[in-house]
Design a protein that fits this description.
about 100 residues; alpha+beta; Alpha-Beta Plaits; 5-stranded antiparallel sheet; 3 helices; monooxygenase; Dimeric_a/b-barrel; oxidoreductase; monooxygenase activity
Length: about 100
């Protein structure tokens, strides 16, 4: 399994807008991608800014390509997200999941 990790930042005023976008539009899109295995959105409040870390899980890098296109390290940031975020990573990282512990 592959974990795709990306970060974006929002002001405290628009952070909930981004979370809503992730839970609705992003979730709907991801669920249509073959090999999609799940996603987590982490939130960290840092004074006047909120940092989000998105971790999406795919069965293989081929499935990541189906989602991200020919350059899998290029971040996929939709227009709705761009309006809610103040900045974001243009590149993502991919990691092989070597242990998956859930309680």
């Amino acid at each position: 399994m592959i974990a795709r990790i990306w970060r974006g930042w929002a002001s405290t005023m628009t952070a909930d807008d981004y979370r809503h976008h992730y839970e609705s539009e992003v979730a709907e899109h991801l669920q249509q991608v073959a090999g999609f295995c799940g996603a987590r959105l982490l939130r960290r409040q840092d004074s006047e800014e909120v940092m989000f870390t998105s971790i999406t899980f795919f069965s293989s890098m081929d499935d990541v390509h189906a989602f991200a296109g020919k350059d899998p390290e290029q971040a996929v940031v939709e227009e709705t997200a761009r309006r809610a975020l103040t900045r974001w990573d243009e590149r993502v990282t991919h990691h092989e999941v070597t242990a998956d512990l859930q309680g």
